[in-house]
Amino acid sequence: MTFVPSAGSLAELLPGSWHIGATNFPMWLRGDRLNPTLSYEVRSEQPLKFLDTVTYSTRAGVRKSIVGVDTLRGDGLVWRGRGILLPFRSHWKVEGTGPSDEFVVTRFSKSLVTPAGVDIMVRHGARLDSQELRTIVATSAGEFGLTPEDLATLTWLELPASA
Predict the structure, then answer these.
(1) Counting Cβ atoms within 10 Å, is residue 96 exposed (0-12), middle (13-18) or buried (19+)?
(2) What domain of life is recorded for the organism (predicted)?
């Protein structure tokens, strides 16, 4: 469903862990950052802020993390890195949600170091496999804020057994 963001709806929707089910983001498609997991934790409600932690494995099996803070601005979120990533920012928003909020479609704008793109994130523990996700999204793409061009650029990733 198309998602109308508000502080309350985002504070209910995003907390928890998510897996990438589909993406056109080069960072997840190059093959050197595997099995990405995104975790969101509410840090404040006024203004709404999330601690945003992305973890992934290298080809050598080493787990690495990227940490930032997302702050609600208008109808989207502004991510700002922490530590050595402090100078970096990116803008993103939730475009749509799947049944029972099992997945979300996010769109991010071009930043200084990343292209614009789309991620479809599946909630950890969702009872949804990769093929089901693809079918739901493909048959109702417009409801999730996706254009035919968006669909054509997505690469579908294998979800863990219990996403």
Answers:
(1) buried
(2) Bacteria
Nearest C-alpha neighbor of 42 from the set 8, 74, 76? 8
Gap between the Cα atoms of 141 and 95, Å rounded? 11
How does pLDDT run across 48-87, given as a tens digit for each residue? 999 999 999 999 999 999 999 999 998 899 988 877 776 7
Q: What is the DSSP string of 89-124?
A: EEEEEEEEE-GGG-EEEEEE---SSS--EEEEEEET
Domain assignments of the chain as residue spans, ordered by start: 7-156
CATH superfamily of the 7-156 domain: Calycin beta-barrel core domain (2.40.128.20)
